[in-house]
Write a structure and sequence with these properties.
This protein is 33% helix and 16% strand. The protein is an alpha/beta fold and 239 residues long. The structure holds adenosine-5-diphosphoribose.
């Protein structure tokens, strides 16, 4: 497999999707066994569903949160975190809500689609951290409105600060590595063409070809937990 010396690139973006966590046991969204093959997003992952039936929506997210809590970061998450510790120009932009990059030790992860580990008030943006407790129906301490999972659901706008931070990182990237995303969900998928037009060296890590594969000079068709340590080896003597 082609190997890339990360120190040759002053700015690097790892852009991740559900496939990076698949080998940790977190189901992807699309394809065989995917979440959207079991649930209809309009029933459990939209503002309209939450207004109509908050109990069902909360139960879906609590099931996911509990499952993710039982999963562990895999060698792909860990290799990315190890690189972040030794290379100041590495940014992680993720569409995932599972928190596994942070649990592997990555810092300042840009979460484009929110997090399973937070609830927020849609009025004030105030947040409740769920790292120690389950989802339940909660009211905003300021306005009393029901809080919702801090997840970008279908039809929701992407968080503006996260989107802008990701855009800045992508614009500067000399190396852009997309891992385990079908590149079907916008605007996140647009970062791939953005990186290409900004002149980055483009690497795709995915077990299958995707909608965006034509944008990549290097397509590594292997599971992320094998491909990431092999394609981005740490310098000799490093942990
Ligand atoms: N290693 C690498 N790639 C993998 C692996 C693996 N072990 N397993 C699966 N994949 C790839 C699949 O081939 C697929 O292209 O991961 C991709 C997963 O695609 P999706 O399920 O569509 O996940 P993602 O692209 O992250 O979805 C984007 O859609 O509904 C949502 O908001 C949700 O953030 C999510 C967004």
């Amino acid at each position: 497999m082609t190997a890339f010396a990360l120190h040759d690139y002053d700015r690097v973006v790892f852009f991740t999707g559900a496939g990076v966590s698949a080998e940790s046991g977190v189901p992807t969204y699309r394809g065989y066994g995917g979440i959207w093959a079991q649930y209809r997003p309009e029933d459990v992952a939209s503002e309209a569903a939450f207004q109509r039936d908050p109990e069902t929506v909360i139960a879906f997210h609590e099931t996911r949160r509990r499952h993710v809590a039982s999963c562990h970061p895999n060698p792909a998450h860990r290799q990315i975190a190890a690189w972040q510790r030794r290379h100041g120009g590495v940014t992680v932009v993720t569409q995932n809500t599972d928190g596994l990059h942070a649990r592997a030790g990555s810092e300042d992860v840009i979460e484009l689609h929110g997090s399973l580990w937070r609830m927020r008030c849609r009025q004030h943006g105030s947040m409740v951290d769920l790292s120690d407790g389950p989802y339940r129906q909660r009211q905003c301490p300021q306005c009393g409105q029901p809080m919702r999972p801090d997840i970008t659901w279908f039809g929701d706008p992407v968080d503006r600060d996260a989107f802008e931070a990701a855009g800045r990182a992508v614009q500067q990237a000399a190396l852009f590595v997309a891992i385990g995303t079908s590149a079907m969900v916008w605007p996140a998928a647009g970062f791939i063409e953005h990186a290409l037009h900004a002149g980055a060296t483009m690497v795709e890590v995915n077990t299958e070809a995707t909608e965006a594969s034509r944008c990549f000079a290097h397509c590594l068709r292997a599971p992320a937990s094998q491909a990431i340590p092999a394609a981005f080896p740490l310098p000799e003597g490093a942990d």
